[in-house]
Write a structure and sequence with these properties.
Layout (H helix, E strand, L loop, with lengths): L1 H23 L31 E4 L2 E4 L4 E4 L2 E4 L4 E4 L2 E5 L2 E5 L2 E4 L3 H25 L15
Antiparallel strand pairs: 1-4, 2-3, 5-8, 6-7
């Protein structure tokens, strides 16, 4: 009988030990969302922009996530686009993490209207110059100079 009670006590102790770790276990679920970084980016680094360069826009440097840590990517020149301003990229908070939004080109306010106005003005000026030339004293109708009539 003593052996039976010892076995019962051992079974009870083992069951308690078996329950104890399970009761204190923690469950961690890591859902990998593409482009989402759980670690916040470091504070932006200040880069003094170089002197202006005609036909180019300065794109500031940024922190880039390499899969393990952030690495600094220095600024660079980008070819300017007529009628557009460059809006730099930025890190934004999203669903408990951070996501990089690339920089993009945004149409400059009023650029289209001013550009169209300038084109109309140039067309009108060219048309006026052509009309003045047609009626001027030295105008020779097309094909007449070859025939010796001008």
């Amino acid at each position: 009988m003593k052996l039976h009670l010892d076995a019962l006590a051992l079974a009870g102790a083992l069951s308690l030990l078996g329950i104890s770790p399970a009761a204190t276990a923690q469950v961690s679920v890591n859902i990998n969302v593409p482009g989402l970084v759980i670690t916040a980016p470091p504070a932006p680094r200040y880069e003094a922009p170089p002197a202006p360069r005609g036909g180019f826009v300065w794109v500031p440097g940024r922190w880039a996530w390499n899969g393990h840590d952030y690495a600094w990517r220095p600024g660079r020149w980008a070819k300017a686009r007529a009628g557009y301003d460059y809006a730099p990229g930025r890190w934004i908070e999203d669903r408990g993490g951070w996501r990089w939004t690339e920089g993009n080109w945004r149409r400059r306010e009023g650029w289209r209207e001013s550009h169209e106005h300038r084109e109309r003005h140039e067309r009108r000026r060219d048309s006026d110059a052509h009309r003045h030339h047609e009626h001027g004293p030295h105008h020779c109708p097309p094909g007449q100079a070859k025939k010796g009539r001008c």
